[in-house]
Amino acid sequence: MPPKIPKSVKGPGSTVGAKPSKIIKGRQKPREEDDMTVDEYGEDYVHGRTLVRPDDQLDLTETELKEEFTRILTANNPHAPQNIVRFNFKERSYKQTSHVEQIAIHFALDGNMLHKDSDEARRQRAKAGMGEARSEIALSEAGEEEAGDGEEGEKEEAAEAPPPKKESLRNQFNFSERASQTFNNPYRERGTATEPPPRANFSSTANQWEIYDAYYEDLQKQEKAKDKTKQVPAFKKDDDKTKKKLVALETTSDDISRVTKASKIVERMVNQNTFDDIAQDFSYFEDASDEFRDQEGTLLPLWKFSYDKAKRLAVTSLCWNPKHVDLFSTGHGSYDFTKQGRGMLLFYSLKNPSYPEFIYSTDSGVMCIDIHPTYPYLICVGFYDGSVGVFNVKDKRAGPVYKSTAKSGKHTDPVWQVKWQKDDLDNNLNFFSVSSDGRVVSWTLVKDELIYADVISLTVDDVPAEGPDGTQLQLLGCGTSFDFHKKIDYLFLVGTEEGKIHKCSKAYSSQFLDTIDAHHMSVDAVRWNPFHPDIFISCSADWTVKIWDHNYRHQAMFTFDLNSAVGDVAWAPYSSTIFAAVTADGKIHVFDLNINKYEALCEQSVVQKKKTKLTHVEFNPAHMIVVVGDERGYVTSLKLSPNLRKVPKKKKGEESQGIDHEVEIAKLDKILSLVREPDNKDKK
Amino acid sequence: MATETKKEEAHDFRRLHSYPLIRHTDMPEEMRVEAMELCVTACEKFSTNNENAAKMIKENMDKKFGASWHTIVGEGFGFEITHETKNILYMFFGGNMAICVWKCS
User: Fold this and answer.
1) Half-sphere exposure of A63 (CA within 13 A, CB side)
2) Average pLDDT over residues A59-68
3) Smallest Cβ distance to B21: which of A201, A214, A252?
4) Which of A48, A389, A529, B33 has the fewest CB atoms within 10 Å, i.e. is most exposed?
5) What is the DSSP letter of A187?
6) Cβ contact A212–B97 (<8 Å)
7) Does the CB of A195 have a partner CB in chain B at under 8 Å?
8) Using 50, 70 and 90 to split pLDDT, how confident is the model at B40?
9) What is the rounded average pLDDT of the residues A219-245?
10) Are A413 and A437 in contact (CB under 8 A)?
11) A199 interface with B at CB cutoff 8 Å
């Protein structure tokens, strides 16, 4: 950094002028005091000191002091060589050079001070610009300067007056400009050609008769269509509409629906690979250990069905599709009175266990479903809010095709069971429902609405209760389940929450044919035997399953205690003596009366978490599997081991196909004859 | 008597045949409906001037579905055309009018 001119010049400059003699004095004894710092030395240099004699100085006499020694100082350098020769090219000989450098430099120091009036000082000032000027002003204000300095300051200001030229300060000695060239990317050519839009040719002729003919034809077509629509019944109209809609959709949609079929096939293929071992088990695995256990059987868990949105929604009903034996529907809702909410109706296929085939979401919990035996795409549903509805899988709409409302006679309590009936005399579809409001209602699908008719009210036999103001209230029983006789069209059974089972007829709406005090708690399910016309089974929350002959109403043929509330019971479709029951402790019990009349052949827990209640069970009509639903929304399919599906061996020569009803009835009769007591038979 | 019935028929024919009747199209539903409505509007607006009707249809189709539409409006004509697929509509209207709209660039 260059020295600051004003200070450096002024300070010592002024003292030099003031005390020249002191400097001379000081010079005589400069290096005698070794301990001085540079600064002190400098000060000492300026001010000087009194003479101090060194200790080893010679003491000389006066005469000796006065003696003169003559010394001649020459400017010749004693060390400089005197005999330098150089080759002279002119004379082609060595010659002694006459001129010898006599200057010897013993010490050189470049000062860092400048005279303030010198050119260099001016240049630096110009470069430093205003900063210097300011410090100059600050100094002048301090008032330490002499008059001359003040004048100089003015001069400097005058010198600074021209605006300072701004120059970038470069290192002049080590400055180089640099430039570099970046790598150029190689060029590449690329081109595409689009396919021209597809074109087609069209030609026609338009004239008056063509136009007339076209209109004429169209009118005739329209009239025909009108006639047709008049003829077809109401709900087929709906189908036509949906067909039209479908056609319209097919022509317009460019989205994923066009690949629906292909994607479904691929999905099933993937699932087939994923669940290959289960599929193999389903077809071929037979529990070999059954041969060594006479009276026991096992259930092999196969696929497990669940759907994210239906998790924690209890399986409230199960129903196999009568036409497609791999397809079944599940109803989801809740049995908990305090936790009611939405419901779901799902359709699963054994071919695709990972995702439902059809999904319907409902506002109220689904409590029961039934698939129509001849139109397997129609499903009637009973809801927790008391309404009933009919879903059509063919119809693409998201909700029910028919639904009962408060105006059209819906139940006031949850609907516990629905069942399709044979078409009525006008060929209208109809189904029955039972609810805890004590009514059994018949619903008929007419055009686009549900017509209802009360079939029976479940009156309680006891004396009517007295109302607070003396009016007599007729108490109604709470229906929880029912089943229709397979052969006798009018006969059906209704189970109630009071534990009674009523034998009813469709013909009488006020009276029961019979009432059985069957259970101590609510009857969860009642089902006729698929073979024997007199036998039915019932299960209840009082932990029991009972088998009845409807001619012997005072006494159950068999009673089984399962040590937990029984959620559902189902007869096997292939044998008259086999049935399965599911209990609230997560177990499934399979009985074969033909083998063991006292205990279950199989008692197996099928839930993953303990305390999960099983709610429903259903046998597949064709395959040897059952599906069970639990209250967490899972449905498990289980394969019955050989011991659980024993049927009587057929005699040689008999047809080997199909189930022999006579044999099945005889088999059951034989067992029942042991327990029937003729005295107890009802008097007819 | 015969003339009367004929007259009646003619009247009936007029009344019955006034609706637009699509003879041939491969347009998607949305486009078809729009094009059809446009043709009907144009023919009703310029019921005496087919040229103006055709012009109106062409210009509107250009605006709505991109350039290079062609239109024929008339009572009798024959044609053989090349069109871009999904872009043709051939319809009758009013019992005596034929309209052909197609796109080809």
Assistant:
1) 0
2) 85
3) A214
4) B33
5) P
6) no
7) no
8) very high
9) 64
10) yes
11) yes
**CA A540/CA B47 separation, integer angstroms:** 80
Distance from CA of A397 to the nearest CA of B (A): 21
Is residue A71 domain-resident? no
Of A30-44, A505-519, A535-549, the poorest mean pLDDT is in A30-44
The verdict on residue A123 lying in a domain is no
The C-alpha of A219 sits at a distance from chain B's nearest C-alpha, in angstroms, of: 8
* Least confident range of A109-123, A485-499, A571-585, A654-668: A654-668
- Tell me the sheet residues that pair with A496: A479
**Does the residue A603 lie in any domain?**
yes
Q: How far is B18 from chain A (nearest CA, A)?
A: 9
Nearest to A199 among B30, B83, B96 (CB): B83
Q: How far is B88 from chain A (nearest CA, A)?
A: 9
Mean pLDDT of A323-343: 87
- What residues of chain B lie within 8 A of the CB of A204, using their CB? 23-24, 78-79, 90, 100
Listed ranges A146-155, A290-299, B69-78; the one with the highest mean pLDDT? B69-78
Q: Which of A204, A208, A215 sits opposite B21 (nearest CB)?
A: A215
CA A550 distance to own-chain centroid: 54
Reference A298, options A618, A645, A624, A602; nearest CA is A602
Q: pLDDT grade, residue A313 (50/70/90)? A: confident
Taking the C-alpha atoms of residue A79 and residue A98, their distance in angstroms, rounded to an integer, is 16
Q: Find the helix or strand (DSSP H, E) in which A560 lies.
A: strand A558-561
For the stretch A178-196, pLDDT in tens is 888 888 889 999 999 988 8
How many domains are contained in chain A? 1
Q: In the prediction, which pLDDT does A424 show?
A: 80
CB distance A200–B88 less than 8 Å?
Answer: yes
The answer to the question of residue A293 being in a domain is yes
CATH number at residue A580: 2.130.10.10
d(CA A572, CA A570): 6
| Share above pLDDT 70 across residues of chain A, in percent, rounded to a whole number | 78
- Most B CBs within 10 A among A194, A202, A255, hence the mutation to make, goes to A202
Q: For an interface test with B, which of A194, A195, A215, A251 has the most B Cβ atoms less than 10 Å from its Cβ?
A: A215
Higher pLDDT, A78 or A351: A351
Arithmetic mean of pLDDT over chain A: 78
Q: Is the pLDDT of residue A248 over 70?
A: no
Task: Indicate if the pLDDT at residue A663 is higher than 50.
Answer: yes
What would you report as the CA-atom Rg of chain A, rounded to the nearest whole angstrom? 59
By C-alpha distance, the chain B residue nearest A207 is B76
Identify the CA nearest to A523 among candidates A485, A489, A556: A556
From the CA of B1, how many Å to the nearest CA of chain A?
A: 23
- Which residues are within 8 A (CB) of B84 and not within 5 positions of it... i.e. 6 or more apart? A197, A198, A199, A200, B102, B103, B104, B105
Helix H or strand E segment including A54: none
Domains of chain B: 19-103 (3.30.740.10)
The whole domain housing A292 covers 265-461+476-647+660-680
Is 90 exceeded by the pLDDT of residue B58? yes
